[in-house]
Amino acid sequence: MSRSAAWRELAGAELAARADELDDLLAATGAPATARWAAIEVWLRHNSGEQAWGLVHETPDGIDAAAVFARRRRWGLWRVRTVGRPGEQSWIAAADADRARQLAGALTDALGRAGRPWTLLAADLPEPDLAADALARGLPETEVREGNTVPVVRFRPGSRLTDHLSRNTRSAVAKARNRVAADGLRMELTWHREPDVIAGLLPEVIELHQARNRQLRGHAILDDPAERAEFSDTVLAHAGRGDADLLTLRLDGGLAAFAVGLRSGGELYVYANYVSPRWLAHSGGTIANAEVIRYAFEQPGLTGVDWGPGPQRYKLSRAEVRRTQHVEAWSSPTVRRIVQAARAARAGVRRA
Length: 352
Hints:
By secondary structure, this protein is of the alpha+beta class. It has twelve helices and 13 strands. Strand 11 (267-275), helix 10 (284-298) and strand 12 (304-306) form a beta-alpha-beta unit. Helix 4 (37-45) packs antiparallel against helix 9, helix 7 (167-182) packs across helix 10 (284-298) and helix 8 (195-217) runs antiparallel to helix 9 (225-240).
């Protein structure tokens, strides 16, 4: 089969109809939870102005390369971007360097057939990454920028739990547990994986999520009904596939801390974790975060914990840093100048 016949451009329902095949490929290539179909489908459902659009490479044995994007018409342009929230890692599935180069070429051809100027943002791709390198070299007008730093704890063969929890962390957890005991509090650490149980606990989890964000920032993103619904749907979509783990830490029955982990690629991605402002003096967050490492270390099939973007101190203990990158491209130098000038003007207005 020739390359022109093998690459197929799919949009909307056509792409959704291939969801199972796409997810098999994403799983086989080690895609993170934020780039698997469960996350893609929820994000698209909650961003109705965006249309699912992508390319797949078909062989007699199925799909062996794919790139899923969201696109919309705006200001006379096609604006194409990787699916997902800013900061969440994206993924382009390519089996090898040759297929990645072919994908970049096929993407350029497909964008060229759009009939209007375009911009493309492939955000939060791994660094390094074959597909990102191929896009940067193969698209007509590109810029590569540094993305987020993501602390990751990796469990290497033969390691012990104490190799992944520092002495300071273990000491802090012991002090926190002693304080809980000294105050006569009953502590319960429980992991939940059953979808109906997780669904029943979500209102309480969201309430704590909001309370901690209000304390830290003066407002809570989950006060917005749309944001709250997307958060819930993301957790429930993964729970329904058996890929969500919810930790609850209770002190005298009240929720003192929680962590939501999403499984993919052999890692437990910490999608959200917060401590209740009420229980800060008892270091519920310290106990819960250490428990995340212990639990993941003992789970068959898990080889690490992805703490998500951000260099908070608790994430960096015994962790290595994984970096991401953004590849941005424009259909021509003129389009690049216009778009960047408009962006600079908007940034100036926001600063003013």
